[in-house]
């Protein structure tokens, strides 16, 4: 898989933005990607970045209603990537603060 196929998009929420000070970034990733693949993809996409650890979790779809019809939102996988202390921060997230 290509790195851009593994890392789908960054997650921009209040909780994920609090982790930026500790160099902790949150991404939506491919469902079949492992922690090692995610770490390599982040290091490949964002240059001069060293990954310390990766935590992953599967997000289940929630039940939503539209009038009398109901269905579930899609299931997806989330990865919380922590960088080493000597690593550069990711510039994309720095513009959000």
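Q: What amino acid sequence fits the structure above?
A:
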């Amino acid at each position: 898989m290509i790195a851009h196929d593994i890392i789908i998009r960054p997650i921009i929420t209040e909780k994920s933005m609090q982790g930026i000070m500790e160099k902790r970034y949150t991404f939506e990733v491919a469902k079949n990607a492992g922690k090692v693949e995610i770490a390599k993809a982040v290091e490949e996409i964002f240059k001069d970045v060293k990954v310390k650890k990766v935590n992953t979790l599967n997000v289940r779809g929630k039940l939503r209603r539209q009038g009398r019809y109901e269905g579930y939102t899609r299931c997806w996988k989330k990865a919380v990537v922590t960088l080493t202390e000597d690593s550069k921060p990711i510039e994309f997230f720095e513009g959000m603060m």
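Q: And what stands out in the fold?
A: The mean pLDDT is 93.
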